[in-house]
Amino acid sequence: MASCLTREYSLSDGGIVEVKISNPVQHGESFSSDIRISGLGETIDLHFIGFDTMQCVYEGMRMAGTVILESVEFRSGKLKWQAGMNGEDLGLPVY
Q1: Helix, coil or strand: residue 23
Q2: Alpha-carbon span 29 to 14, nearest angstrom
Q3: Per-domain residue ranges for the chain?
Q4: Dist CA 68 CA 94 (whole Å)
Q5: How far apart are CA 29 and CA 26, in angstroms?
Q6: What is the CATH number of domain 4-80?
Q7: I need a surface site. Which of 5, 8, 10, 92 has the fewest CB within 10 A?
């Protein structure tokens, strides 16, 4: 991904989980973007769309948060965000 938003999470074993969300690209009346999450075993690539750039980035952040929340690393307490207020704060919107 050439131009993207990036966030890193630390694993208790010293590893890093990296989330990259590409800048939205317009396709007709909507926008699309990609997510790449690495460091949770296999690299996870997802594609999403939004009505405008704000919704597109928001949906990407929400998807990334969901993937991380469901990961074995997070559920076992091995994944942390340095700026997090507590062990459950990923700094991402989640549902």
Answers
A1: coil
A2: 43
A3: 4-80
A4: 10
A5: 7
A6: 3.30.160
A7: 8
The residue whose two tokens read 């989330």 is 19
Share of the chain above pLDDT 90, in %: 77
Q: Is the pLDDT of residue 88 over 80?
A: no
Ordered DSSP codes for 26-82: EETTEEEEEEEEESSSS-EEEEEEESSHHHHHHHHHHHHHHHHHTSHHHHTT-EE-T
Place of tokens 């700026």: 83
Average pLDDT, the chain: 90
| Contact between residue 64 and residue 92 where contact means Cβ atoms under 8 Å apart | yes
